[in-house]
Amino acid sequence: MDYFSLIQWPAMVINILSVWMLTSQSKGKRHAGFLLSLLSNLLWVIWGWHVQAFAVLGLQIALATLNIHGVRKTESNA
């Protein structure tokens, strides 16, 4: 069994949860959403590297950059 292929499922669930948290009015939930989104980015990068999905890798690196900006912004506003 190819366990790396299974990474896409928790990545998807974490990504959906993180986006839901990012829509919250609570700064704490938004901050947690950015952190969860970074975890999702990491999982997608692992999966994308394994299947050689280079467009997914590029997208996740770009999104991770935006999520790092979001983490910093929510930390400074907390």
- Total number of helices: 3
Flag low-confidence runs. Answer: none
Shape: elongated
Average pLDDT confidence is 94
Q: How many strand segments?
A: 0
Q: What kind of assembly state do the chains in view correspond to? A: single chain
Question: What is the element string, with H for helices and E for strands?
Answer: HHH
Strand content: under 5%
- CA-atom Rg in angstroms: 13 Å
SSE layout:
Elements: H1 8-22, H2 27-51, H3 54-77
Question: How would you explain this protein's 3D organization?
Answer:
This protein is an all-alpha fold and 78 residues long. It is built from three helices and no strands. The protein has helices spanning 8-22, 27-51, 54-77. The protein is elongated and about 45 Å long.
Keywords, please?
mainly alpha; 78 residues
Outline of the structure:
The chain contains 3 helices and no strands. It has helices spanning 8-22, 27-51, 54-77.
